[in-house]
Amino acid sequence: MNNADALNKKDVALWSLIRAELETLYLVSQVLSKSIELEQTLAEVLKLLHDQGRLFNGMVSLIDEDSKDLMVCAVYDNNDELPVEKIRYQPGEGLVAIILQNSEPLVVERLADDPRFLGRLGVYDTELPFIGVPIKINENEPVGVFVAQPPSGGELLEEQTRFLEMVANLVGQSVSLSRMVVNERRALEDERDKLRREVKAEYGFDNIIGHSSVMRHVFDQVRQVAKWNTTVLIRGESGTGKELIANAIHYNSTRASDTFIKLNCAALPENLLESELFGHEKGAFTGAVTQRKGRFEQADGGTLFLDEIGEISSAFQAKLLRVLQEGEFERVGGLKTLKVDVRLIAATNRDLEAEVEKGDFRQDLYYRLNVMPVNMPSLKKRVEDIPDLSHFLIEKISRKQGRPLMIMDSAIRLLMRYDWPGNVRELENCLERAAIMCEQGQIDRDVISLTGLQENTAPHEIVRAQSSVSLDNPDLDERERVIAALEQAGWVQAKAARLLSLTPRQIAYRIQTLNIKVLQI
Ligand SMILES: Nc1ncnc2c1ncn2[C@@H]1O[C@H](COP(=O)(O)OP(=O)(O)OP(=O)(O)O)[C@@H](O)[C@H]1O
Ligand SMILES: [Mg+2]
Q1: Which of 57, 61, 90, 212 is the most exposed place for a label (fewest CB within 10 A)?
Q2: CA–CA separation, 134 vs 147, rounded Å?
Q3: CA dist., res. 370 & res. 347, Å (int)
Q4: 310 lines ligand 1 (CB under 6 A)
């Protein structure tokens, strides 16, 4: 063989290798762009190198982001079995750690000849050469090491090292992308869990105020019913806390980590209500440009809260009955029957029994809904809850306004004399108005009376007895004490003076200097 022949033979071998490498590189890039599940894609890459890229017994190890240890991530394995236990390298340990330390490729002609080789993995052929390259992300510190074994040493080793470097660069990009996604996912999951905890705390029983016996009864019922999947019908006047209770049931049930979806049935005309609840197929009606999931589907596995259920038409009642009976429905314009697992909570302030009697509400639907009725008492029926509620709501408003707020007992006693047709919501609105009008943040009866409450105020016999305070209470300041005495004396000054052991002149003087306005309650 002459020189030219020998050169030719070398060229042919090189070109054949480069062709195989190019083809492999193309396939490797495909595998890496397919998925961000690193361990699985890396195993596929090692198999490609072995089968087509003329690099055998590959291994990828990456630095673990949390422990900073170099861990074996994928090893070429003919039987598609990854090592059960992950191997970690100590700093400076073996060839792999040296590559990481120097951040440079390392080539060994015959593995058996290198004393630094530890052979811990047991996958290498010690008769073959060894190539190891660092895996880098954007020229930074290496994040891992990629090693493989070419079938023979000699002149092609240099080319094969360059090729392994190229593959390692592609792997570096994938590692970077996958870590970004993993970190983002982790951050989102943390955020989600935090929000879930906050929502759960917000809708916990602690935030539903009421020590009256009627409210205690409600709590007992709700605690019991939350455990089961039973349909709940919450009844009660406007503003009594029906939505609050619906939330509490969901967030204290086994479905708490699934969705809570609500829909106000009174807010939509019937045709929209249907597509909102059951969803629609693309082209089901003008404007249905895409397919859309309805609230029932969105709530699958969780809870659906249908507010103002008493407002739905009789045609719609029939459709709802079917879902409740069979758990089945079709999207508007759809033929496929869908099945969902949804816990239903409904609420109404209507007298459903009377509606059934009149024929305006289907009796069968009424029975389906009324499995577990919870009646929210009006605020008028639980006046004794007003002090706690007021303090709780003032704290809530204070947080919202970002400033300290305080409510005086005289203000609370005034609140207890009102009828509250709008229930807790009206109380909350009244206190919010009072807080806005009160610059110092100390809400007393004058501020409350300025909210316009006084005009609606009607005498309330039961309350008078309940709202009496001890005049010896050391916490009462002078003004509060005089007001309390006047209230107890029915605003007869002479009587109030006697209660405070003052003369009528003295009390008149105090009323004037303390600027106490006489309210006609
Ligand atoms: N027991 C309670 N403790 C604390 N806050 C309450 C209580 N009951 C009601 N609230 C508050 O009062 C407001 C009205 O409550 P909610 O919206 O639950 O009433 P509702 O019965 O659904 O009223 P509507 O029938 O008008 O829809 C809300 O801000 C709620 O947080
Ligand atoms: Mg409501």
Answers
A1: 90
A2: 9
A3: 10
A4: no
Distance CA 2, CA 9 (A): 11
As given in the structure block, the two tokens for residue 103 are 């951040």
Ligand 2 centroid from CA 237, angstroms: 9
Q: Residue 412 Cα, ligand 2 centroid: separation in angstroms? A: 25
Helix (H) or strand (E) holding 3: helix 3-34
Whether the Cβ atoms of residue 437 and residue 447 lie closer than 8 Å to each other: yes
Helices 38-51 and 157-202 pack at an angle, to 10 degrees, of 160
**Positive or negative torsion for Cα 308, 310, 316, 320:** positive
CA distance 438 to 450: 10
**In angstroms, how far is CA 128 from the centroid of its own chain?**
55
Q: Which residues pair with 144 in a beta bridge?
A: 62, 135
Residues 6+ apart with CB under 8 A from 267: 308
pLDDT in tens, 198-215: 888 888 888 899 999 999
d(CA 242, CA 347): 7
- For residue 243, the ligand 1 atom closest to its alpha carbon is 18
The model's pTM: 0.68
Amino acid at 444: D
The packing angle between helices 3-34 and 38-51, to 10°, is 160
Q: Considering every ligand atom shown, identify the ligand nearest to the alpha carbon of residue 246 and give its number.
A: 1
Q: Distance between CA 343 and CA 301 in Å, rounded?
A: 8
Q: What are phi and psi of 272, to 5 degrees?
A: -70, -35
Count Cβ neighbours within 10 Å for each residue of 392-408 and write b for 16 or more, e otherwise: bbbeebbeeeeeebebb
Binding site membership of 241 for ligand 1 (Cβ less than 6 Å): yes
Do 131 and 164 meet the contact criterion of CB atoms below 8 Å apart? yes
Q: Which of 347, 342, 331, 431 is nearest to 387 (CA)?
A: 431
Tell me, what's the pLDDT at 463? Answer: 46
Rounded to the nearest 5°, which phi and psi values hold at 399?
A: -65, -40
Percent of the chain scoring above 90 in pLDDT = 55
User: Helix 3-34 to helix 157-202 angle, to the nearest 10 degrees?
Assistant: 10
